[in-house]
Design goal:
- This protein has eight helices and no strands.
- By secondary structure, the chain is mostly helical.
- The termini are far apart.
- The C terminus is likely disordered.
Length: about 190
Amino acid sequence: MQSKLSDIDLIEQTLAGNQAAYADLVKRHQRFVFTLAMRFSKSREDAEEIAQDCFIKAYRSLASFQKQSKFSTWLYSIVYTTAMTFLRKKRVDTDSIDDENTYIQLENHSSGLNNDMAETKSRSYYLNQAIGQLLPDDATIITLFYMGEQSLEEIGQAVGMEANTVKVKLFRARQRLKEKLEKNLKGEVKELI
């Protein structure tokens, strides 16, 4: 029954003391929050820590949510700032985006016997691999726009930029993603020949 409620309804129930309502909010958004955290950290352990910190911060700040934007936009802005703060504190050595050994960890999915399903997984693998090689800002904007189905304005709110700036960054991120895909798939074609 809870899953049919809107985010706003769940927030109001949470603020009224219903902890299960917040658990439903977490379940609804946890996968995407984790995906965004992975785009920044490239480490499953760090991404889990970032995601957990985000949900704790969101819970503590829930009363300040103004409901002028979607809850997901507000939550993704928390992910963005939390990830940036985490990475600044950790001062991780970054790899070159051209490093052939830079890969992201993918969740294990049961393999299907259907050829279309295998092809879709293959496409998804190469796409996620290429996104993982982008700079964190580019990966975030691509992820929010395509996977999160956020508008330019919503992405701008989440990352603290004007919508026009996001539009330009999205265009450039698409170009870099295309280059990564071409580079990665060129190697795959050579392996098949």
